[in-house]
Specification:
This protein is mainly beta. Helix content is 0%, strand content 50%. The protein contains no helices and ten strands. The strands form two sheets. Strands 2-10-9-4-5-6 form a six-stranded mixed sheet, with no helix packed on it. A four-stranded antiparallel sheet has the order 1-3-8-7, with no helix packed on it. A hairpin with a 4-residue loop joins strand 5 (46-52) and strand 6 (57-59). The radius of gyration is 13 Å and the shape is globular. The protein starts with a strand and ends with a strand.
Length: 116
């Protein structure tokens, strides 16, 4: 299984930007999908962005037009560019792999805090 390490979180003002990165211990080539999730205290984990093996992208309505997911198979990384950040975006952000068999691996999460 691929081990993931997420980084890039921090404190940012409303309207600002952050770029999150997720580094994999092994190859991400051939995976069914790579995703970013987020979870605020007391709330369920929410899928916010996915990039599929063929390059198709999906976003939650709450982040469409503001966030962009991308991957680099040569570097074994998946990134999340976050623009026009809002206080509602405050959460722990997690990256996740999904195999063709339906299994996956989770990163440890990185905290994003957006001040109002």
């Amino acid at each position: 299984q691929v081990q993931l390490v997420a980084s890039g979180g921090g404190l940012v003002q409303s309207g600002g930007s952050l770029r999150l990165s997720c580094a994999a211990s092994g190859s991400i080539f051939g995976l069914y999908a790579l995703s970013w999730y987020r979870q605020a205290p007391g709330k369920q984990r929410e899928l916010i962005a996915t990039i599929f093996s063929g390059g198709k992208l999906n976003y939650a309505d709450s982040v469409k037009g503001r966030f962009t997911i991308s991957k680099d198979d040569t570097k074994n990384t998946v990134d999340l560019q976050m623009n026009s950040l809002k206080p509602e975006d405050t959460a722990i952000y997690y990256c996740k792999t999904t195999t063709w068999g339906g299994s996956g691996s989770w990163g440890q999460g990185t905290q994003v805090t957006v001040s109002s």
